[in-house]
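Q: Structure for this?
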Amino acid sequence: MEFIHYFGDVFTPVNFLILVLGTIGGLLLGATPGLSPTMAVALLIPFTFQMEPASSLIMLGAVYTATVAGGAVSGILVNIPGAPANIATVMDGYPMAKQGRATEALHYCFISSLIGGVFGVMLLIFFTPPLAELALRFGPAELFWISIFGVTIIASIGGGSVIKGLIAGAVGLWLSTIGYNPVLGTERFVFSEHLAGGIHVIAALIGLFAIPEVLALVGASGTARGKVTYAKWSNHSVWKSIGYNLRRIKALVVGSVVGAVVGVIPGAGGQIAGLIAYDQTKKLSKDPAKFGKGEPDGVITAESANNAMVGPSLVPLLTLGIPGSPTAAVLLGGLLINGLFPGPDLFTVHGQVTWTFIDSLLVGQILMMIFGLMIARYSVFVTRIPKHMMAAAVIVLAIFGTYSVQNSVSDVIVMLVLGVGMYFASRIGFSPAPLVLGLILGQLTETNFLQGRLIAGDDPWGYFFAGPINKIVIALCILSIAYAIYGERKQIRKRRQQQQVTA
Amino acid sequence: MNRVIQKFATFAAAAGLAISAGAALADYPDRPISVTVSYGAGGATDFQARIVTMMAAKEDKQGNGIYLNGQPIVIVNRPGAGGQVGWNKFVKQAKPNGYELAAYNVPHFIAQSIVFPKKVKYNIDNLEPIANWGADPAVLIVNKDSPFNSLQDFIEYAKANPGKLTLSGAGLYVGHHIASLQLDKAAGIKTKYVPSGGGVKAMQFVLGGQTMAGFNNLSDAYRNRDRLKILAVADLTRNDFLPDAPTFKELGVDVDDSSVNFRGIMAPAGTPEPVISTLAEKVPSMFQDKKVVAKMKDGGSPMRVMTRDQVQKMWKERQAYLTDLLKDLRQNK
C-alpha cells in the first residue's frame, strides 16, 4: 500500500499543472493521425532535460495515457485511427458516428479507457513481481504462437465476408515482408528505392483508412454541389452513457483482461490488444452480426483493452528494463536520462519518484476521462464541416502525419499508393483492418519464427511445442479457428432460415 | 511540433542563404544544423545524440555563441534496415554545406559497406568524420543461473558441442555480431549467433533464458548486473563502470576492441575544408560540456571523446580489419 503515501507529490502545483497540460496535449496529439503515442513521447523527451525527475516522468506518463485514448477521436469522427492501437475502436466507432451517435461513441471511448486504464495500473501496483517473471517467459516460440493467434482473428475483423477478410489479411502479410529482414539480412520485394525501409505500419494505417475516406468524401461532395452537407449528429447525456457503459460488464472485462495480458508480453504491444479483445467480445456476443455496424460494445471493449495495456507494459520496463510496448521502449530513455535504472532500486532507493509516477498515471486516467468527455461535446463541430472541406483537411493531415513519422517522402508515396488501391478494393467489399493487422503480425510472426528456428537448431518441434505457455496459446489458436468455423456455419444457417421465412 | 517549427526555420534560412551565398563561409554556422540519426527515436544512439548535441546553442553572458555561434542542432530520425536507409539517403542527398550532418555507428556502417558493396552507397571514403562522443564495448554475458562461471567454461562447452551454444546480439553486422565472429575465430569454436531486434531484446533473451549467452552493450550489462554474470569485456582495457570484469585478452583469448560501438558525428564528403575544420575544433568541446558529461553519466552511457584525426585513424583500422574478418560474408547484391 506504499503507493498511497505519494499521492501528495502528484498534487504539488508544478506536478499537477504538468499532468493537466500533458493530458490535454496528449489527447490532441493522439487525435492527430500519424502522431502515435510512441512518437509523442519521443518528441517530448528533450523537454524533460531541465525538469525534476518526478515531473518529467509525470509528463511522459500523462502523454502516453492520453495519446492512446486520443487516437480514438479521429478514428470515430473521420475513420482514421490515430494509432494502430485504435483500429478496433474505429470498426464500430465510425459507424456509430455515421448514425449520428458520435458523442455517444466518444463517451464510451473515454469511460472505457478510464476503467481499463485504472485496472492496468492497479495490476502494475500490486502484481509487479509475478508479472515480471511471466514477461520473461515469452521467448521467440511463445511470441510466434501469439502472432499466429492474432492471424486466426484476421478473418473475423473484416466486417463482412470471411473470404475477403482472409484475402486482405494475406495481402497484409505479404506487405510485411517488403524491405530488409533483420534476422537474415536480406532484402525482399524492393522494386523501388522507396521500399528499402519496408512499409511503415503508420504510413499504411493512414493510407488505408484515410485516403479511401477522402476519395469517398470528394465523390459525395461532387453530387451535392452547392449544398452544404451536414453529417447527422445528436446529443447524448453523459450520465446516460456512463450508466449504459457500466452495465456492459462482459465487454469491459474481456477488454481489460486481454489488454493487460497483451501489455505484459514484451514485443506484442498495444497494437494488437484492442483487436484481440474486439474479436473475443464479438465471439462471446449473442449477436455477433451487430458488430461492425455501430455496436457500442465494440468501442467499449477496444478502448478498455488499449488503455489496460499501458500499466502492464510498464511492468517489465520498470523491473527488468524490458519494454512491453514500443512506447514503453521510448519511455525507457526518459527513465535513463534521469538516472533511474530499471530494477529493484527503482522501488526502494528511488521509491519516491517511481511511486509518484505510478500515482500520476492513476490521476492522469481520471483527468483524461474528464477532458475527453468535454471534447466529446464539441464533436458536433467536426460533423458540421462541409464534406469538400473535410476532404481537404483530412488529406493535409494524412500527408503531414505520414511525413512526420520518419521525415520520409517515401512513406508519403507508399501511403498514397496503398490508399488509392484500398479505395478501389473497398468498393468491392474489402476492409482495411485485416490488411493492417496482417502487416503488423507478419513482422512479428516472421522475426520470432526465424529467431526461434536459430535457437532451436536440430529440434524445432521440441522447441516450438514445449512449455506450458506454448501449449496454452496453441490450444487458443485451435479454439479460435474452430469457433470461427462454427460461428460462420451458424450464421449461414440463420440466414437460410430467414430466407425460408421470407420466402 | 517543435521539430516542425525548426523545419520551417531551416527552410526560411535556406531561402535567405541562397541570396547571400558568398558570405556564408565566414560566419558559419548562421542557421540551425541538422544531424540525421539512422535509428529510431528513443533508441540508444538517438538518446545519446540528443544529449551530446543539447548544448549546441549555448551562449556566454554577452550573448556570443560558445560552440556553434549559438545555433542549435536538430536531430532527424531516419530509421530502417539496420541503419542502411538513413545512411544511404545521407550520402546521396545531404548537401555538403556543413548544415546537414549525420551520426555514425562504427563498426555498423563500415561492416555494412563491406558485406553489401552493391546496395550500400556509403563507405569511409565518401564520409568525413567530425568527432566521436561515445564508445560502448561489447561484453559477453550469461544469466545469473547459468552453469557457465567463466569464459573457460563457456569455451569448453562450445568445443564439446559445436554449433549448439546460442548467443544473442542486437543485430547483423553490428558490434555484437563482430565480437561473436572474433570469439569464434580466436577460441576455435563455433557458436550460433541469434540476431534480435535491438540490444534490449537481446538482453531479454539472456535474462529469460532463451539463449545460453549473449553479447550486449557494456552500459546495458552494467544496469542489469544483478541478474547476470559478466564473463569478459571485448576491449583493450577494463571499463570504469565494471572494474571487476576482465578483458578477453587478459583471459588469453585474442579478441580486441574491433567490436566496440563508437558513436560520433560525420559530414558528407565534399564539405568545404574551412567548415570541417570549424566543426572539428568546436564539436569535441561541445561534447565535453559539463552538463553533457553529467547527463551521459546519469544515463549510464560511457563517453569517449575523440578528435577528427583520431577518428580518421580509427575508421581506417576498422576498415582494414573488418574487410579481412568479413570476407566470407560478402554479398554481391
